[in-house]
What does this fold into?
Amino acid sequence: MKSFWGLVCLTHCCFVMCEGDVEYRKAQIADIPSILELMKEAASSYDDRVMIVPEVCRDSFVKGMIDKKILYVAVSDGKVVGTKKFFIAEGAEKKDLLENLVRSEGKKAGKPSLRARVGNEGKVIETLATPASNEWGVCLYTGFSYTLESFRRHNIQKKLTEFAYGDVAEKVKELLRARGQKKVSLIVVLTYPNVGMRPNEGYKEGYDRTPSLAKGFQSFIKKYIETTLEGTPELELSRYNTFLPAFDPASKTCDLPLPDEKSHPMYGHIFTYELKGNVV
It folds into this structure.
């Protein structure tokens, strides 16, 4: 696969980014069959607790994300090879993410398992004893990130993320100006292996994706939000113990997620940046 930027084009009034033979853009209705195939591979790569919706519900699940314009895809030869759900979370949707997914507030909330400052290369430079403020400002959410096995090790997710950040940047700045807010946050949940932790609990020790998520968010801040900032934007990380909703793979209906004891233990992360000046 080529490693250079091929072109940036405007097609059917939608911004599209292309590199080599891979195109990055928002998902379209015509992509649904290809996305469903990708979801089938994703489901088979997990255990018997499927972390994505039951097969019978997937078509409507994908269509809903496309209608909301919150699903981004990487496409090669007309086939979707990578997906990412990415959007600005507001109102009830933001409340639901914080209470039921991350569990940073609400009835299921617990204290953060980690509070830290994050600096260069997205690495933790200091743990913090201070409690999280629960003032997250403008919140972004990313999830449903998956790349076909045959397309891994080509930075598909990195480039898909960069495209999604660029797509929402102007709206984030508008909200910060309109509300006089100084904080921007990124919400994401990760499995234990994806934070490189808990091998003693029966989980394989994996690659810690926390630094790469932090670096991507830092790049977004510096490129789009506080462009005059010198050095690397310093973030605060709040990590919470939570569970990613899982579903019965044999379900014939779009049931509610399984209870916690039958779901996947996860870490909910909130990366927060506080602006030093005003949005340009």
Summary: The helical segments are 32-44, 58-68, 91-101, 156-179, 210-225.
